[in-house]
Protein 1
Amino acid sequence: MELRQLEYFTVVAEELHFGRAATRLQMTQPPLSQQILLLERELGIKLLKRSKRHVELTDAGKVFLQEVRRILTHLERAKDAALRAQMGILGRLELGFVGSATFDILPIIVRAFREQYPDVDLVLHEMPTPKQIKAFHNKSIDIGFVRTPVVDPLISHLTIQQEKCIAVMPKSHPLAERTSISMGELSTEQFILVERDIWPSWYDDILSKCYDAGFSPIIRQYVKEIQTIVGLVAAGLGVSIVPRSTANIQARDVMYVDIRGEAPQVEMSIAWRTDNNSTLIKQFLDIATRYIGCAR
């Protein structure tokens, strides 16, 4: 059974006249009649009652017509969906992100993408950068908001944000009302830091800047998320160094203070597999590039 035979049968059933059906299909009548006979023979069912002056559907033909119309409708939808997927306006993107991306840049880019491509199913997974690297390798995510540097030949990335870090401390801290401090003024403080395995480059940069300022930090607590840092600082358990965008977390009992001179810096990038040429990824990168200025 061929698709064109189903299309031929539908037109004949609508016209109930082989001549008019042939004209509609831009073909001659004999091959059209032959194709309908072949269809009936293959099905083993009489679909049409024919006479020299009259054509009508059999009861089986009426039922078959209903089902064929459904098939043709579904095929048209499938064709349209495939075309839209090829154009990058339909499909599914698995997106990984570090928690700190939600402070400012992720909502802006995701909202803009969803507005422009509402039929793309965007599935978000929160995970630290090292886990995203593994996810890229096993192809469980397509796009990632990661903390760079990332050195992996499998992964390409586009830098979308660079931030200088600031200090966060309890509101009652003697330095909390200052407009800025030096790294050296934190030498006697107890620090709350994100675990090195979660964000190695940032952890190492914080320690390096402390050493440059003449001290080795006293680390009281390790955590997995920047949001947790802010909560523990609010509880009076210590101070920390965080990306500037963290100040978007409005915690009642903490203060954010600028650091003068050489402060740790962090970088956010969008990453993807180098060998993935998906149109959807290109569309997402186009949106991200367009909105970088808004997110900085």
Protein 2
Amino acid sequence: MVMKLEKALGELMKKLGMNLRTATSQDEKSKIEKNIEKIDNQLVTMPKFQRFLLLSMSGSFTDIHVNFSGTSVFYHLIEIRKIFYVAPPTPENLELYKQFERHEFEDEWIGDVLFFQWV
């Protein structure tokens, strides 16, 4: 999907570039340039990886997090089991997570703050 999106955005950039060359008014050129800038930013910031491998030892754990670049993850467990605790992605919880990432929690752990929301 990443490759398809990158290709589609690249084709759109080419089309906008052609439209920019034929634009007649400054207002039209300005709008096209803004769209080109947005798409260029998307191309620069979108994830460039398609697969990754995560290995962990028995008894290990991962702290509360959002997967990098907002990616989805498929877990295949070869031995034993992995337990996931998930809290609803409400606007309030997402704001709490942002505060947690900015190290704004001094005496509390976010896991305790969200304790009664874990599923």
Protein 3
Amino acid sequence: MKTVLIISERGISASNLLFKLAESIHEEDLALDIDYVSFGHIKEKLSKKAYDLLLITPQVSRHQAEMEELMAGPASGLKNLVISDDDFHFMNIPHILRQIKEA
């Protein structure tokens, strides 16, 4: 089972994404465990559970320096995928899931 952590700026927008992804994961019977966290709580979340992939929402790009520090520290070695603005805005779940499977 692949574990995926969605990172959003405040966690609010990611909850909608999480819900839609969970629906599709259930319908397709995929071996994916999806969770989400707001940007300010990433280190705490990573200290409690191991993840295979970080799925980053477009808003987090405002925190580039902090993300680079995170990827060099607690998240080093983890794959990460930034969701495009269009995929996030239009909730293009099929494309996002395809990217997760390929990561």
Protein 4
Amino acid sequence: MSGTDKKAKIPQPPTPAGGTGNLLSSVAPPSQLPNFVTASPVVPVASTAAEIPQIQMPQPVIQPVPAPVPVQPIIVQPRDEAKPQSAQETFSPAIPLSKGEPMMSIRSPEDSQATHSPESLPPDSTSEIDQLGDIMPGSGLFTWMKGAVSTGGLLARVAEKAKSSVDSMITTLDPQMKEYLRSGGDLLIVVASDKEAKISPIRDAFQTVFGKANVVGYKAQSDVTAEQPVGYAAAYAAAKQRIAHIRSVHSELHNNVPIVAVEGFLQESVTDRWYDISLLILSQPSLGIELQLQSQGTSVAAAAVAAAAAATPADYEHAQTGYSVTIGSIMAASLQVPHSQWQEAATGVSRQDILQLAARSLAGSYKRLLAVSAAET
């Protein structure tokens, strides 16, 4: 046998009888399936009956296994059973849980199901709260309750603030409601005048100081001084005359009813320096109270005073106490404003504001005298 005959031959399929057959008939039969486990190159199948080369399988590379890392043993300390439990460290918050809380129950077992509030406490419960506060001086709860239920405490201040806010809102929406809300109480103030320009500022002042007050005005005449008093003495005599006239006409106004009189007068501080000032007098003979107070002065030109003096007749019966023409009428004609608005036109401050500030000082002094009189009795 020759060398060529020793080579292995791939068996050829039999040739079909028809001569030329399908192209698939010339394809060699499939060889052994490739092994996908190892990365072996894919050998294409020869389209002809060519010799298939021998496939060399790659040798696997064996990597050395690293030596194991020694594990350090962890020594666990045995628990000290002899150490007392109370001496062990425990978590302690920065603020103790008992801060501001009572250390014992407020309610007894009998009324453990009941719920108490500061409003439902009996009248003598404040003494019990004081005792509990003494037992637990560091308790903030009992301190709050003591201040809340006591006179003038937290609840009283909150209620007063809420009432003041509601009253302020109502009077802002309707200014006429101010007199309705603040009228009432036990205090009655009578003004010796029927002019609203005098009654309104006195009413506002006394209701502001006392909270509630009834302020009414009656017409009062003064025929002992001039129409326009000049000097403090003339104004004082005219105011006293108005108070006496009120008490003589209205017999129901006994000596225990305070009467306030307002009298405007001219005062010459230095030569040709004139001021229009209002004198306020409060009289209550039953308590021996007579308060006198002067308002802020409004500057008056010397020419206006000279005009009032020139308009007064020489035979005027009260020429010694003043003029027959008021300074208000002369200033109003000069400034071309109503008689009651000349102070505001001249200085920017109305007479009502001037009287209200003076009347508030008068009401404050009167309130202090009432407190002193009540303490003495």
